[in-house]
Design goal:
Layout (H helix, E strand, L loop, with lengths): L3 H25 L2 H10 L8 E8 L5 E5 L11 H12 L3 E10 L2 E6 L14 H7 L3 E5 L34 E5 L5 E3 L7 E3 L13 E3 L7 E4 L4 H12 L4 E2 L9 E7 H11 L2 H12 L8 H10 L25 H14 L2 H7 L2 E2 L4 E2 L11 E8 L2 E9 L5 E9 L5 H18 L1
Parallel strand pairs: 4-5, 5-11, 8-9
Antiparallel strand pairs: 1-2, 1-17, 3-4, 3-12, 6-7, 6-10, 13-14, 15-16, 16-17
Helix pairs in contact: 2-11, 3-6, 3-7, 3-9, 6-7, 7-8
Length: 430
């Protein structure tokens, strides 16, 4: 009689252990885990570092997690965090400048708004407003931002994806140069500083002197060296009137002029993976919380407020992801994407997020056998390719995922094919 309770205790103990093991085995047999584990064994992912987290957007249940708490270099996946910062801090229409009026003079400060005379955004709000003013005085010292971000590669100074950061950016802070039917330069201010010639760089490192090869068929976008004097001259050319500069912004009531809808800028940034727009949007977001604008202020604010609950706090240093100093985990991206999904209506969110097809980001869906189901932002530079976003499955559910791959030596197309195969299976079977 005395042994019965001991026997029952042992049976219960073994039952609990077996049920626990069974639950693990059954969990491991779920379609999501089978798909993910099978594809992660692909030879393209060997000898490299990869992580994948998949979550059901509605239930918030993590369906698969491998290396989800490990830090990766995110590249342009960082733009997802910049996008979320804009959603939290910026209004529907971007603040394009602030001003105060003293006597008959308008004193103007930039906010970092990237749309001024931008060749692809086609917004003239600030320029048209300034044309209607009398005496205009610019104040550009409302920032402590450096022209380049931390960890940016010095040799990228002449590449289209590395324009300088400024409070009043003009023309996207690049010169557009073509030579198909004679030399064409925009803005024309730089025409006499542009030469048709073979040269190892497209611009002198420390001067606004530009080069285009005689055989070049494409239009080149080459960053120019910004500065107060150049800003003044370019604006005077655009406004067709003289303006002045000042080292002190006067006291008085401050007004704000609002420009184009921020959604249009977000979409251009995400679809084109535009580094310039990402950096400037982060600067403009900082103007909503500080009189001194800069990306560091926006980053610090978000990490202390809207992103303070991330399970793994990131190292976040710029808006574009151009820096290799950035470090994020797949789980962090899934958490941020979940916040976006819960705070932004789905139809708006999936309009702003790029579609991602078998090869890369696409303007039009390229898989004729399936409906568009992948809405995701990629991020890549040498030996790294990451993708984070949403899968809208055949059954109508939405999955949130972050698939990060660092330090591979195979061609990135092999990585992308593995990723697409994995995500398409999730679309088919979940």
């Amino acid at each position: 009689m005395t042994k019965m309770p001991l026997i029952c205790c042992r049976i219960s103990k073994y039952l609990i252990i077996n049920l626990f093991i069974l639950s693990i085995l059954l969990g491991g047999c779920s379609p999501t885990r089978k798909i993910a584990r099978s594809n992660l064994k692909n030879t393209a992912l060997q000898n490299s570092f990869h992580g994948l987290v998949v979550m059901d957007a509605k239930t918030q249940k993590i369906l698969f997690n491998t290396n989800g708490d490990r830090y990766f270099t995110p590249a342009s996946n960082t733009k997802i965090v910049t996008f979320y910062t804009g959603i939290k801090l910026l209004p529907k229409n971007i603040p394009t400048l602030t001003y105060t009026i003293a006597n008959d003079t308008v004193f103007v400060k930039g906010t970092g708004d990237p749309s001024w005379l931008h060749p692809h955004l086609h917004d003239s709000t600030a320029i048209n407003w300034l044309k209607k003013q009398g005496n205009i005085v610019l104040y550009t010292q409302n920032t402590d931002e450096l022209r380049f971000g931390p960890g940016w590669a010095w040799e990228d100074f002449d590449t289209y994806f590395s324009p300088e950061r400024t409070t009043i950016p003009l023309y996207g802070n690049v010169v557009a140069v073509s030579n198909n039917q004679g030399l064409e330069v925009s803005p024309s201010y730089f025409y006499n500083e542009t030469q048709v010639a073979e040269h190892p760089f497209k611009r002198d490192e420390l001067a606004n002197h530009f080069y285009i090869a005689p055989s070049e068929q494409d239009t080149l976008e080459i960053p120019f060296m910004a500065g107060d004097s150049l800003t003044k001259q370019l604006l005077e050319s655009g406004l067709e009137k003289k303006i002045s500069m000042v080292n002190h912004f006067p006291e008085g009531p401050v007004g704000t002029l609002y420009g184009m809808e921020t959604d249009s800028i977000y979409k251009q940034m995400l679809f084109k993976s535009d580094n310039f727009l990402a950096e400037q949007l982060l600067m403009t977001a900082s103007s909503m919380i500080s009189d001194t604008i800069g990306t560091k202020r926006a980053i610090a604010y978000m990490l202390e407020n809207d992103l303070k609950d991330l399970e793994q706090q990131p190292r976040w240093v710029d808006g574009s992801g151009l820096s290799r100093y950035n470090l994020f985990t797949p789980k962090s991206f899934v958490q941020i994407l979940s916040k976006l999904y819960n705070e932004v209506p789905e139809d708006r969110l999936f309009t702003l997020f790029p579609m991602w097809g078998p090869d890369s980001t696409v303007k039009e869906w390229e898989d004729p056998d399936t409906e568009p189901f992948l809405f995701a932002k990629s991020g890549s530079f040498g030996n790294n390719y990451n993708l984070s976003g949403y899968v809208r499955t055949k059954s109508g559910k939405v999955l949130i995922f972050s698939f990060m791959n660092n330090h591979f030596k195979v061609p990135s197309i092999e990585i992308r094919k593995t990723m697409y195969a994995t995500l398409k299976e999730l679309y088919e079977r979940y």
